[in-house]
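S.,

As promised, the magnesium ion run. Input:
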Amino acid sequence: MYKIAVLPGDGIGKEVIEEALKVLSAVSEKYGIEFDIKKYLFGGSAIDEYGTPYPKETEEACLESDAVLLGAVGGPKWDDLDGDKRPEAGLLALRKSLDVYANLRPAILFSSLKSASPLKDELLKDGLDVLVVRELTGGIYFGDRGTEKIDYGYKAYDTEAYTTKEIERIAHIAFKAARNRKKKVTSVDKANILDSSRLWRKVVNEVSKEYPDVDLNHQYVDNCSMQLIKDPSQFDVILTSNMFGDILSDEASQLTGSIGMLPSASLRGDKVGLYEPVHGSAPDIAGTKKANPLATILSVAMMLEYSFDRLDAANDIRKAVNELLEDGYRTSDLGSGIILNTEEMGDMVLKYLKR
Amino acid sequence: MYKIAVLPGDGIGKEVIEEALKVLSAVSEKYGIEFDIKKYLFGGSAIDEYGTPYPKETEEACLESDAVLLGAVGGPKWDDLDGDKRPEAGLLALRKSLDVYANLRPAILFSSLKSASPLKDELLKDGLDVLVVRELTGGIYFGDRGTEKIDYGYKAYDTEAYTTKEIERIAHIAFKAARNRKKKVTSVDKANILDSSRLWRKVVNEVSKEYPDVDLNHQYVDNCSMQLIKDPSQFDVILTSNMFGDILSDEASQLTGSIGMLPSASLRGDKVGLYEPVHGSAPDIAGTKKANPLATILSVAMMLEYSFDRLDAANDIRKAVNELLEDGYRTSDLGSGIILNTEEMGDMVLKYLKR
Ligand SMILES: [Mg+2]
Ligand SMILES: [Mg+2]
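Predicted complex:
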């Protein structure tokens, strides 16, 4: 019995979560996996009820769960609140309290959505399926920083720092993920310049010895930003630091042209994970039934793969999504085809899962 | 009379420089601008003669010049030398001795070379002409760094630091460059996280007040890496730090698909500049007359614009290059057309300049 805390959040978050829960329940039936699923308030909806985006009750439930499934948070209603009282502050608090240090962002281009990619068709012949594994709790985003008055104006600084342990644990997650994929890790750094990158490369090389079945190569970050555009099919898993991962995961997402399709996972070593779509709460389309639930449904697939070790069920969901897209079903954000609303798209996934 | 030190360097560097010098001499005649041009050994060729890639004689000449024109350095002959004795070490020493703190990298897609871009045609309707202005002597590439033994393994760190003065001077270069273009600066930072970025944004906002004719907007670096692919025509001048500029200038270059066409300039405030093609010494094609001289010829155009304030002559060269490409003339790296060798391409630029 796996315990799942579900945080629908705000806007379309609530709508797409409903469809993801239908899929979870279908998977439970088909594979005989039992889930204990409970919903909790989070983000703006929690602010309205408790005055805080991440209430104690929600936190306790998340900490006791095997996985957390999140919709999306935020909206104009809460935009005037102070920084640390806004729905988005709940996201940071949630990630911190779960202590998830690995952010996994797959950039997958489903072949029937090729036309949405900004890249020319000939570059996508071999498809596009890159998983960016980004270190999430270290590096320059959390290092020592400050601003001091000097003779003329100011001097401001930030510190990029990594320890052997921080690099080891994220590297293990990347190599393990590669084992379920094409068995290739590209570690990205700036080792020709940075001390932190030289340590990164050394530790990744060490960890790779435990995964002789996985190929490892190294790329400098500036070269990687070119290679992603020039020849994206060379990549399987990209392993990188917090800052480089922030840039490269967004660049890789954009190559698919369909941000409404992209799931994500944030993990720690014991398989506990937080799963959420990359898209936001889209207040402009909330309530119109136009939201695309597939990113959240694909986040459920990641949950099955990474938290519950059920690659079979995960790939089953992915296959269903791929097939219904091939057959022309779309939500309105995906361009022309047989247009379905949020609920209809959820039902269509169920139908293809049951075929 | 402008003094130009010319450093042909190694490999195809020597070949493309010859063509660039023919263009300089044609410009001198057409516009009545006088140049005092002398060649000096640099890179591998200097190692062979003096045992060092940046000999004293070359340095003295560069320091006395108004501009330095560089071909390219390096080759297999010198690959086994130690790091600080290699041709590439000469590049760092050259930039340092000239004290150039602004690196300007235009990513221009000539409309007749659209097919080389990895981007779909519909994204390039409005062309692609982005100038990345990268801070070159500060930031994390030059900050305090170290690696220390800790209880378990090591901790390594690097420091991203900027002062008001460093940001001011690079901002002025970006705003001035924008005045000769579409009058738009996009400053790229990570001000939602980094102290150095918050100072960056504040100072850029201040400097912008002196350029009321230039529009300024700000983007986070991760968003910019997406926007470059999603909608490259939104950009005119991108102003950013050393590290972000390293990544974004390479990403922007790749969008053109024609690295053999890309010039660069490295400047300081007094208009002294170093001009060089982005491509390397390409030892594999050296001596075959296949080298494309256009990146070096376009570097001469940048020299005319930035060091000699002759936008008219600079644009004349750009127009000539654009027109001969429209008429189907190509070097072999540019795909099919009327294929010219290095010398023939140089002569063709002269012919179009004289029309
Ligand atoms: Mg980001
Ligand atoms: Mg670079």
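Residues 118-256 of chain B form a domain with the Isopropylmalate Dehydrogenase fold (CATH 3.40.718.10). Residues A 246, 250; B 222 surround magnesium ion (ligand 1) (CB under 6 Å).

- D.
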